[in-house]
Amino acid sequence: MLIPYENLTSKTHDINNTTLEALKDLEEGWVRRNYSPVNLRKNINWKLESEEERSWNFHIHSWDMLENLLMASSFKLYTVFLEPAIKIALDWCDKNIKNGSEPSDELSKFAWYDMAVGLRAYRLAYIIDAAKNLGILSKDDESKLWSALMIHHSYLMNDENIAFHTNHGYYQASGQIAMGRRFKEVSSEMALALETGISRFHIMLNQQFTESGVHREHSPDYHRMVYDTLIGVINAGLIEDNDLIEYTKKIEEALSWFVLPNQRLLNFGDSDWRSVARKPKIAKAKWQTSAMQFVVTNGEIGNLSKETLKVFEKGGYYIARFNQKEDSGKYDTYSYLAQTAAFHSRTHKHADDLSFVWYEKGHNILIDAGRYGYIGKAEMGSELWKQGYWYTHPNRLYCESTRAHNTLEFDEKNYPRKGAKPYGSAIGRHKQYANGLTILETECKHFKSVRHARVLVYMPNQWLIVFDWFKDNLDEKHDVRQWFNFAPEIELVQRDNNYVAKLDDKNELYVADLLEGVTGSEVKNGIEEPRLQGWFSPAEREFIPVDSINYKLEESATGSIATLLSFNGLPTIDVSKNQVSISGRNLTCTWSDSAGKHILTLNRKVDQDLKVEYQVNI
After folding, report:
1. How crowded is residue 612: how many other Cβ atoms within 10 Å of its Cβ?
2. Which pLDDT score, from 0 to 100, does residue 573 have?
3. Which residues of the chain have pLDDT under 50?
4. Of 57, 83, 185, 428, which has the highest C-beta tally within 10 A?
5. Given this model, what pLDDT does residue 77 score?
6. Angle CA(269)–CA(481)–CA(571) in degrees, nearest 5?
7. Could you tell me the end-to-end alpha-carbon distance of the chain, in angstroms, rounded to an integer?
8. Which one-letter DSSP state was computed for residue 65?
9. Interaxial angle between packed helices 114-134 and 139-157, expressed in degrees from 0 to 180 and rounded to the nearest 10
10. What is the Cα–Cα distance from 472 to 452, expressed in whole angstroms?
């Protein structure tokens, strides 16, 4: 009996829609994002034509364009879907295997790229199995495809080819399991592949996720992708493990915290500005937890716990989430603040230490830059390679840069990643009061000698204070910028050293410095020279201008910058009366606005709990 095609992708398939999509792929060509359609009735161009097409070429060599055809054929063995897939598979073998037995990367480095091999292996196995069931393979073609499958097996059995430390290895193991399971009864090699793949799968799952279910690759989108494949592996019956099934719920619960109130996935690291919004029927079929169902349907089904602060201590994230209108039942009315404080490896890691994003009053306020795409390979030994960049496209370089994130920048340099020891998690102390006031502390070291402590003091639906303290242990002086990058719909107007933005008919945002000595920059939007600034990449190869500002402190070996972002009307601040200790352990600041006179004192002494005293005199 033919084993159904394994759905190891994030896509939900049903017989009617998948069949229609497969027919469309055959008639109009397979389309992915903004690339040109691929005619599946003609020979595929397997060649990597330019570094601009790295991602595109990877998908081609993974055989992603066959996904709908194979799934549609699995619902009912129609040769109309399987025959084009067989032809493409045979053509790939002719072009990317030499002498019938050796891998060839003459056309493209992605022909035998680690993750592509894993994804292609289970698709190739299904094509062989389904074609044999239909009796539409000649003996020569069957021999050619089986030889190709054995080459994939040999490749995947070699530990040196397996990316154990990244999600690529996870996909390799998944493909190996599916391939092995399909032919374990007729091939000792495939039985070994199944056993090896399952062992590797468990090892990598434990390595790549924390106990609390957070993926360690600095990217909520990769968390989603790996989770989808994990569910696909379980649903396909490739692994039967009750403890693993229970663990998937923890991974999904963690993922629900990385969905913003507008149903966009939080785009830290290499994550696109992806919408995960779904209709209730689809959400209920796809997601197993009530929390995930709630956030992707804007509260139409499911529910959230009363928990308002999630601390992923080992993962390296703070997330504060408050329901501002309990009677509405809608997620888009929530307040949301998320901070990244993670450095586990270079994998998908941007130079974004201690950055954060903020959603308030139904609007994105502060955003992450996105990823732009994996375009242009950095040459080993080049200056960019030494700085920790894998890719060279200017837009990609910007998206990875420190100044593209809401954090401190020293001397216009990016935080080092190559040669820098990963610190894991920079999560520090935290405190939350009954009125919602939330204090989040993080600390890490930059450039080996610069200590950097950040405290976010957050009053949901009202204001946020971003307090940074730094000290160079070598007493070297620096020009330091505290960057803020705003959502595309926000237009800032500069007023002296402060800024204002009208969000809607009811809400205005005010940005003001709280301490002496800092200078506010001009509003930067879509700047190209002398360096890129004020840009946002919502999806691959998309790059749009946004407003970006910074507060600068010059020629300082140690210092503090504190910025207020408030919705309570124009603040009146006497910066000469606000005080901060040279150690950054004590901060006292006052300001007045439409809510009254605010008095806030922060005490962050060593080996003590954080202490904040706050009052508003009306």
Report:
1. 17
2. 97
3. none
4. 57
5. 74
6. 105
7. 76
8. G
9. 150
10. 9
Residue 387's contacts (CB-CB under 8 Å, 6 or more residues apart) are 414, 416, 417, 418
Q: pLDDT tens digits for 22-62?
A: 999 999 999 988 788 999 999 999 999 988 889 999 999 99
Cα separation of 94 and 90, whole Å?
6
Reference 352, options 390, 395, 409, 392; nearest CA is 409
List, edge to edge, every strand of the sheet that includes 498-502.
Answer: 427-432, 438-446, 450-459, 463-472, 558-566, 508-513, 498-502, 493-495
Phi-psi region of 397 (alpha: psi -120 to 50; beta: other; left: phi over 0): alpha
Read off the amino acid at residue 428: G
Q: Rounded to the nearest 5°, which phi and psi values hold at 303?
A: -160, 165
Q: What pLDDT, on the 0 to 100 scale, is given for residue 599?
A: 98
- Say if residues 59 and 45 touch (Cβ distance below 8 Å): no
DSSP count for the chain of H helices, then E strands: 14, 28
Q: Chain-centre distance of CA 486, in angstroms?
A: 19
Are the C-beta atoms of residues 164 and 200 closer than 8 Å to each other? yes
CA distance 426 to 342: 6
Written as one string, the DSSP assignment of 52-71 is GGHHHHHHHHTTGGGHHHHH
CA 56 to chain centre: 19
Strands (E), 238-323: 309-312, 317-322
Q: Which residues contact 433 (CB under 8 A, 6 or more apart)?
A: 612
CA distance 209 to 577: 47
Report how far residue 425's alpha carbon sits from residue 446's, in angstroms, rounded to the nearest whole number.
14
239 in Cβ contact with 231 (< 8 Å): no
Q: How far apart are CA 321 and CA 335, in angstroms?
A: 6
Element (H, E) at 445: strand 438-446
Residue matched to tokens 């329901």: 323
Separation between Cα atoms, residue 534 and residue 522, nearest integer Å: 11
